[in-house]
Design goal:
This protein has three domains: 4-97, Immunoglobulin-like, CATH 2.60.40.10; 113-227, Beta Complex (Ferric Hydroxamate Uptake Protein, Chain A, domain 1), CATH 2.170.130; 228-673, TonB-dependent receptor, beta-barrel domain (Maltoporin, Chain A). The model is unreliable at 1-19, 45-50 and 102-117 (pLDDT under 50). 4% of the residues lie in helices and 59% in strands. The two termini are 41 Å apart. The strands form eight sheets. It has a 22-stranded antiparallel barrel. Strands 9-14-15-12-13 form a five-stranded mixed β-sheet. It has a four-stranded mixed β-sheet with strand order 1-8-2-5, with no helix packed on it. It is mainly beta.
Length: 674
């Protein structure tokens, strides 16, 4: 189970004399995972002269002989810096928990698999780039074996489901309304349809991507029933940085990104812009996307800081139609944007954020559909270190979303509709001992149309030893009906109820060697009141008539015997009483990363079992294996070149029925840093 309330610093102080002594310091993340390579500076109290400057080892530890009083500053890529003053020697060592950076927008951070027990996996921008992913959804598909993303070509997901849908452990929906996407801390979805827009989620200004498997409704409310995808901004380093990346390849496919940022004194800024394009591997399958991000911030004091995060994108994507019935002139023209304005605070005993956010979008489709949607909201989140063994998190959020839609060809006016939701939640983590920890949380959510719902979560973590542990969790998720289902089409029903899910899971994690980490997760998900379309046209009906039981097993491992190379693999098995279309029962991800000195090589692949292409289970797509190779090499100082080969084995396969994927295709490019 995820424990975001564990941010801060836990210090166990003893009553020892103030003479020089050796202390043992350990740096961990909120999930108790060691942070290797964290920079630790120890200074005499009020003095700027360094006493000690070291980095933590692979266990996140270091020893230093110091004299009191002193100040300790700890920094690590991807985390907020932590500063504390020590007046007494710790009796049993000092544990410092770093809080992930949530505001600052380097990319050069390593992926941490130790989040396995929380159900959350995270991949940083550097890992995403090295793995050959071109978009956020590509990274999700490569990162988590239990997540599956559908696509129909070399680039451009489009708006026509099932292309661009993501499912987590078989839960996703069609359209994709059961997995929530969070961008820069704000929920992002099309206000009328309730689903994310995958082509909006580019890699510009992205620091990392995290995927939560299983319900995240206690923290994020409606839409996170099956899981959540968090797109986090990149932290800014001290000084000024500029980076330009350009690439070009098969089918006139290119990606070009420019970013510039600086931290000067108490303030920082970051700008990023990019263009993506392709002519497509089939006629009438072109895609063009331009996008930009802006981040501004200022440290008001050592406790308070204010920040603005915004992004906008505009894309045009063509749909070539089924290979059996090609079509021309089918397009989607979309512009979307959003921003958040946050006031953050952080002390040794409490930390949190209050933010106002907004998003908007306009959509033009070839069939005459036109829409404008928007969402505005406020979110408050505060964590408290109540005792060294007890942390708590409390929060609330309010959001109003909706829009208007028409069809200029059929002259149908769908009207204007809005829905409001408000919720509050409380979560806590209590460490009974060094071996046993308990977690609990609850949210109450109220919707302006159909009232309130309460969702709880519970979890345990038991460490059998330093190398082995077991975690369990029980959680509830929900999804409120969308405006489309209530008022628009195909058969609107204002009497619909929320979908509900109970998830039960257990994880066994092991690290028998310092170079080997592995974990096995078993889960059981009971989904009720699924909204489905019944009947035949024109007598269609939307109703809460669906039910499914999803049971699965996930096996993950990462082996790094040397600093030069590592091997990662993950396998997901799903058994469902009502397996949804385009959800595989078997999926295997694997990657070999080699740091050959002047070259960095990645050979990765995905093997997917057969999937059903329709709800009636009358059409089935074959299994397939796709491999990707990427090589990055420095040319001279601050300049590198790379080449990527997709579908290395030149396999013929379809992810969406009627849309064959391209064979082997290549892309090469350059990266400049200033």
């Amino acid at each position: 189970m995820k424990h975001p309330a564990l941010f801060g610093i836990v210090i166990v102080l003893g009553s020892l004399p103030l003479a020089a002594e050796e202390i043992r310091l350990r740096v961990v993340d909120p999930h108790e995972a060691a942070i290797a390579g964290a920079a630790v500076e120890i200074r005499s109290h009020g003095d700027q002269a360094k006493l000690v400057s070291k980095q933590t080892n692979e266990k996140g530890e270091l020893n230093a002989r110091v004299e009191l009083p002193l100040e300790i500053r700890v920094t690590a890529s991807g985390f907020d810096a932590s500063v504390l003053r020590l007046e007494e020697y710790p009796a049993e060592g000092l544990t410092i928990r770093l809080r992930p950076a949530t505001v600052h927008t380097t990319i050069e951070v390593v992926v941490r698999d130790e989040g396995a027990q929380s159900g959350t996996r995270e991949r940083t921008a550097l890992e995403i780039e090295r793995g050959g992913a071109r978009t956020v959804y590509d990274a999700v598909d490569k990162l988590v074996p239990g997540a599956y993303v559908t696509r129909r070509g070399v680039m451009g997901f489009g708006l026509n489901s099932p292309s661009g849908s993501v499912s987590v452990r078989g839960i996703g929906g069609s359209p994709n309304t059961q997995v929530l996407v969070i961008v820069d801390g704000r929920p992002d979805f099309m206000g009328l349809m309730g689903h994310p827009i995958p082509d909006f989620y580019t890699l510009s200004g992205v620091g990392s991507v995290a995927v939560t498997e299983g319900p995240a409704s206690v923290r994020y409310g409606s839409g996170a029933m099956g899981g959540a995808i968090e797109i986090k901004p990149a932290p800014i380093r001290e000084g000024m940085q500029t980076e330009f990346t350009t690439s070009f390849g098969s089918f006139n496919t290119g990606q070009h990104r420019l970013s510039h940022g600086a931290r000067i004194g108490r303030g920082f800024y970051h700008l990023a812009a990019g263009i993506e394009h392709t002519s497509g591997d089939r006629p009438n399958s072109a895609f063009h996307n331009q996008h930009g991000t802006l981040a501004l911030g200022y440290d008001l004091s050592s406790v308070w800081k204010v920040a603005f995060q915004g992004r906008y994108g505009h894309f045009n994507v063509e749909d070539p139609g089924l290979i059996q019935a090609p079509a021309a002139g089918r397009f989607a023209n979309v512009g979307r944007g959003g921003f958040s304005l946050a006031l953050d605070n952080s002390t040794t005993h409490t930390w949190g954020s209050a933010s106002f956010f907004s998003s908007l979008g306009h959509h033009m489709l070839w069939d005459g559909f036109r829409s404008v949607d928007a969402a505005e909201g406020f979110r408050l989140d505060q964590s408290f270190l109540i005792a060294p063994q007890l942390t708590a998190e409390a929060g609330m959020d309010i959001v109003r979303y909706g829009g208007r839609a028409t069809n200029i060809k059929s002259l149908l006016n769908y009207g204007e509709h809005h829905v409001s939701e408000a919720g509050g939640y409380l979560r806590a983590h209590y460490a009974l001992s060094r071996s046993l920890a308990l977690n609990a949380g609850i949210r109450y959510d109220d919707n302006s149309l159909y009232g309130g719902i309460a969702v709880p979560e519970f979890g345990t973590l038991y460490r059998l030893s330093e190398k082995y542990s077991i975690s369990t969790s029980v959680s509830k998720g929900f999804r409120n009906p969308t405006i489309r289902e209530l008022y628009l089409f195909p058969a609107p029903n204002p009497a619909l109820k929320p979908e509900r899910l109970w998830n039960y899971q257990a994880t066994f994690q092991m690290r028998p060697l310092g170079s080997l980490l592995a974990w096995v997760t078993g889960y059981y998900a009971d989904v009720n009141d699924l909204i489905i379309t019944t009947g035949r046209f024109p007598n269609l009906k939307l109703e809460n008539a669906g039910h499914t039981l999803n049971r699965g097993l996930e096996i993950n491992g990462r082996w790094q015997p040397t600093r030069r190379w590592s091997l990662s693999a993950g396998y997901a098995y799903l058994r469902s009483t009502n397996l949804a279309p385009y959800v595989p029962s078997h999926k295997l991800n694997y990657s070999l990363d080699v740091n050959a000195g002047r070259f960095f090589l990645t050979l990765g692949g995905t093997s997917v079992g057969r999937t059903w292409a329709d709800a009636a289970k009358s059409q089935r797509l074959g299994d397939y294996t796709v491999m990707t190779f990427k090589c990055t090499a420095p040319l001279w100082k601050r300049t590198s070149a790379f080449v990527t080969l997709d579908n290395l084995l030149n396999r013929r396969y379809e992810v969406v029925a009627g849309y064959p994927m391209p064979g082997t295709n290549a892309m090469g490019g350059l990266n400049f840093k200033f």
